[in-house]
Each structure stands twice: as structure tokens, then as C-alpha cells.
UniProtKB/TrEMBL annotation:
Coiled coil: none annotated. The lineage of its organism: Bacteria, Pseudomonadati, Pseudomonadota, Alphaproteobacteria, Hyphomicrobiales. Residues 43-483 form the Major facilitator superfamily (MFS) profile domain. This is Sugar transporter. PANTHER family: SYNAPTIC VESICLE GLYCOPROTEIN 2. Belongs to the major facilitator superfamily. Sugar transporter (TC 2.A.1.1) family. PROSITE patterns: MFS (PS50850), SUGAR_TRANSPORT_1 (PS00216). Keywords: Membrane, Sugar transport, Transmembrane, Transmembrane helix, Transport. It comes from Roseibium denhamense. The chain crosses the membrane at residues 43-69, 81-101, 108-126, 132-155, 167-193, 199-220, 286-313, 333-355, 362-381, 424-447, 459-478. It is a multi-pass membrane protein. It comes from the Bacteria. CDD domains: MFS_SV2_like. Pfam families: Sugar_tr (PF00083).
Length: 487
């Protein structure tokens, strides 16, 4: 393999030249397989942790919610505040804190967000009142929101293009693994500590793995691509050597130069309004934002409140729980049901990883939306049958929903938003799409308990059936397939 830094190269390569390089056979035949270094794998695993903790904390909140409501004497409005606090924090953090990665660097924010996450987990576990609980949940959301752009950038700027798609989607899959883990931790906590304050232990347990992740993030190098944009060439060379460390050592040295365009003319400032004013970019904005908003309405609402729906639907639950023991029993029963349902989140994301480059983003998203609608309709029908079929249909409906949303819109909207915009507008456009989507998540989390009480489970599920069908229509109408396009 020829060293890109050798004297035979007329033009000094950029960071991507080193990162994208693959081995060749002796006769010059290139090897298609991407070989990642140990540091590249470490960066990927540490980036996966952000999505893992998001899934864990958000879904665990659904199980903790009845206990919090009992301790703080909350009504439907209080339920809504707790359910939406994390999501509102994610909405703000993705734009307010995530943008700081462009100013201070990817590595700094990669570390800061995890430190912030741990801090507010501890505050939440020892919160003396409802106000502090809301503040801590919002702070946790800020940290998770910052992770949305930061983790994506730290993967895409350090991983070869041939592996980038599946690595980004693979990292996203840890949201489902986190959801399963959070549900499992909640079940164990309720089993070992059947007390009203068991919810505090649920969040406190998460501090331990988060501390290990924080320590690991101190050991990763800064993005060489970001350092080059800042004109810090020597630091970029050192970061690349750290990233591409191998045994035997290759490359032996790294030589980078700023492109002449950067030396002669600074990059043009991007006007964020162009994502709405320019026709081609506006289409991409609608395509990336609206379906993501619609899928978040269902995914976060169902994810957070599945235990509550199951607790009210399962015949074995103790109606009108007046004691703490009855409340714990119902919460544990619903948590076990939610754990079974959440398995399909992992199965769905595995199908997404396998099929997204074969079937295409558009088809998977449309099929997924239609499947979500069918699952929710099936769950709604469960309330109108007897003979034991009610529980079967409710479980089958939610399981179908979880599988279809993670195979389709939950995975594909995340992937599409980072691919569909022109390079000059990609950060602005993808950031807006993520924020717009989280507005839907916050709305659902806040309004779900209120609507559940006012209009009932049937009407609420049928509304979400409609939003899923609308998501399929918008996806098909504004489609821009990015499967075979270079990033």
C-alpha cells in the first residue's frame, strides 16, 4: 500500500484521503473491504452511547411516571410536563448546544454533553420536589439533544465513506437497545425495591455506565476535518496519526495542506433562510422535516406511555390502585408487557440496517408508515373484542408498530436528513429537521396524557393512525431517494 504522504504525491492529501484509503493486492487490485482502526471502532462505540442513553432514559421515564405522579400528587397536566421535559430539552440542546461543536470542536462537546448528562441524572435521583424533577429532566434532554449532531459528525468525519451509512444507522440502532435496557432496569428495580421511590434508583443506576463512557471520550482525538477548517494543520496531522494508529504503523507520517480556496477566499456564510427560499432546498426541507415530525408524534407518544396504556388495558391489573403496593404491581405488570413489545424495536432496526441500501430509503419509509398505521389500528380494535383476543390484539398492534417504525420512519428519517440536503446547507437543513421533529415529540408527550383522559385510548390511537398515513403520503409526494448518491 502506498503511503499518501509519500513524495510521489504531487498534491498533499486532505484528511479524507487518509481516512478513505483501503489496501490493494500486489497486482494493484483494490480491496473493497473497509478496515477500521481500533480508534475508529472506539469512536463509533462511544458515539453509540448517546443514542443508547436517549432510548434508555426516555423509555424508562414511561415506567417511572406513575411512581413520580403518586409521590408528587400529579394530575394529567403534571404527567404531560414530565413526559415532555426531556424531549423539550432535546429540542433546545440539538440547536443551542449542538452548534457549539462548530465553534469549540467535536471532541469538546462530545465530552461536555456526557458530563452534563451525568450531572442532571444525579440531580434527578435526589430531586426534593417536582420543580427540580422538571429541571433535571430538561437538563438530561439538553445533553441528549447536543449528542444528535455531535455524535453524527464524530462518526461521519472519522469513518470511511464505504462504511459510513451502516455505521451511522448502526449507532442509531442503540436507541432501541437503550429502550430495552431501560425497561429491563426498571423491571429489576421495581422487583428489588418495590417502593414508591424506586424511580430514583432507576435513574441513579444509569450514572455508572455513563461515567465509563465519559472517561472513554477523553481518549478520542479531535476531528481532523474540523481542525483543517479552523486552519490548525499541525494539530490535524497529529489527530489523524492518532485516529489511524495501526500495528505495523501506517501511515508513517501525515502531511496536510489547506486548499487554495481557503487561503484565497473564506467560505461564504450560509443564510439559514435559503432552506425555505430556494426551491430545490425547500423540497428537501419539507421531505426531511415533515415525515420526521409525523413519526415522532407516534414513536415518542407510544414509547413513553405504552406502560400506562397496558396498565389500563390488561385485565390482571388492580383497578383503582389505592396503595403503593397496588401501584407497584400495576407498574411492574405494565413494564413487563412493555419489555416484550420493545423487543420489536431492535428487530426493526436490524431490518433497517440490512435493507436500507438494498430496498431504498423511500420504500422503507412508506412501508414503515403504513405498517405503523396498521399496528395502531390493530391495537385500537383490541378494545372492542372479547374472549381473550383483546390482549392479543393490543400486544400484536404495539409490536407491529414498534417493528415498522424502527424499520421504516424512525430510522430512515434520521438517515435521510443527513443525506438529502446539498453539502452547503446540510448542517442547517438537518439541524432544522431534527428540531422540527422534536416539536412533534414534545407535543405528543405533553398532550398524550391529557388526551388519553379526555377522549380515550381509541380516539387517540386513531388520530395516530391518521398521522402515520399522512407520513406515507408526504414521503411519497416529496421523495428524494439518496440510496445511490454520494454524500
Amino acid at each position: 500500500m502506498q503511503d499518501p504522504s509519500s513524495a510521489d504525491n504531487v498534491k498533499a492529501p486532505n484528511p479524507e484521503t487518509y481516512i478513505e484509503e483501503t489496501p490493494i493486492w500486489r497486482d494493484g487490485t483494490p480491496v473493497e473491504t473497509t478496515i477500521l482502526t481500533g480508534m475508529q471502532w472506539r469512536i463509533w462505540w462511544l458515539a453509540c452511547a448517546g443514542k443508547f442513553f436517549e432510548g434508555m432514559v426516555v423509555f424508562m421515564t414511561g415506567i417511572a411516571l406513575p411512581l413520580m405522579a403518586k409521590e408528587f400528587q400529579l394530575g394529567a397536566l403534571g404527567h404531560g410536563f414530565i413526559g415532555s421535559a426531556i424531549l423539550f430539552g432535546i429540542l433546545i440542546g440539538a440547536t443551542a448546544l449542538g452548534g457549539l461543536a462548530d465553534r469549540f470542536g467535536r471532541r469538546i462537546m462530545f465530552i461536555a454533553e456526557m458530563a452534563l448528562f451525568i450531572l442532571f441524572l444525579v440531580v434527578l435521583a435526589f430531586a426534593p420536589g417536582f420543580g427540580i424533577v422538571l429541571l433535571a429532566l430538561f437538563g438530561i434532554g439538553l445533553a441528549l439533544g447536543c449528542d444528535y449532531p455531535t455524535a453524527h459528525m464524530i462518526i461521519s468525519e472519522n469513518i470511511p465513506a464505504k462504511a459510513r451509512g451502516r455505521m451511522v444507522l448502526g449507532a442509531f440502532s442503540f436507541q432501541a437497545i437503550g429502550a430495552m435496557t431501560g425497561t429491563g432496569l426498571a423491571i429489576l428495580t421495581l422487583t428489588w425495591f418495590p417502593e414508591l421511590e424506586a424511580w430514583r434508583w432507576m435513574y441513579l443506576v444509569a450514572v455508572v455506565p455513563a461515567a465509563f463512557v465519559l472517561a472513554g471520550r477523553f481518549m478520542v482525538p479531535e476531528s481532523a476535518a474540523w481542525l483543517m477548517v479552523k486552519g490548525r494543520v499541525k494539530e490535524a496531522e497529529k489527530a489523524l496519526l492518532h485516529l489511524l494508529h495501526r500495528d505495523p504503523k501506517y501511515p508513517s507520517k501525515v502531511i496536510l495542506e489547506l486548499p487554495s480556496s481557503m487561503l484565497q477566499q473564506p467560505a461564504a456564510e450560509i443564510n439559514w433562510r435559503d432552506i425555505f427560499l430556494k426551491k430545490k432546498v425547500r423540497r428537501a426541507t419539507i421531505f426531511a422535516s415533515v415525515p420526521w415530525f409525523l413519526q415522532d408524534l407516534g414513536t415518542y407518544g407510544i414509547g413513553i406511555f405504552t406502560p400506562i396504556i397496558l396498565a389500563s388495558a390488561l385485565g390482571e391489573s388492580r383497578q383503582h390502585a389505592g396503595s403503593v403496593s397496588d401501584l407497584i404491581y400495576n407498574d411492574l405488570l405494565a413494564a413487563k408487557g412493555a419489555a416484550l413489545i420493545d423487543i420489536l424495536l431492535i428487530v426493526g432496526i436490524l431490518f433497517a440496517v440490512l435493507l436500507t441500501d438494498r430496498v431504498g430509503r423511500i420504500r422503507l419509509q412508506v412501508i414503515g408508515f403504513i405498517g405503523c398505521a396498521c399496528g395502531l389500528a390493530l391495537a385500537a380494535a383490541g378494545n372492542h373484542v372479547g374472549g381473550g383476543w383483546d390482549i392479543v390484539l393490543i400486544f400484536a398492534g404495539f409490536m407491529l408498530f414498534n417493528f415498522m417504525t424502527n424499520m421504516g420512519p424512525n430510522a430512515q428519517t434520521y438517515l435521510i436528513a443527513g443525506e438529502v440536503f446539498p453539502v452547503a446547507y446540510r448542517g442547517t437543513g438537518a439541524g432544522f429537521a431534527a428540531s422540527f421533529a422534536k416539536i412533534g415529540a414534545v407535543m405528543t408527550a405533553f398532550l398524550f396524557p391529557v388526551l388519553l383522559k379526555e377522549i380515550g385510548t381509541d380516539a387517540l390511537l386513531l388520530i395516530l393512525v391518521g398521522t402515520s398515513v399522512l407520513g406515507a403520503v408526504v414521503t411519497w409526494s416529496f421523495q428524494i431517494e439518496t440510496r445511490d448518491l454520494p454524500t
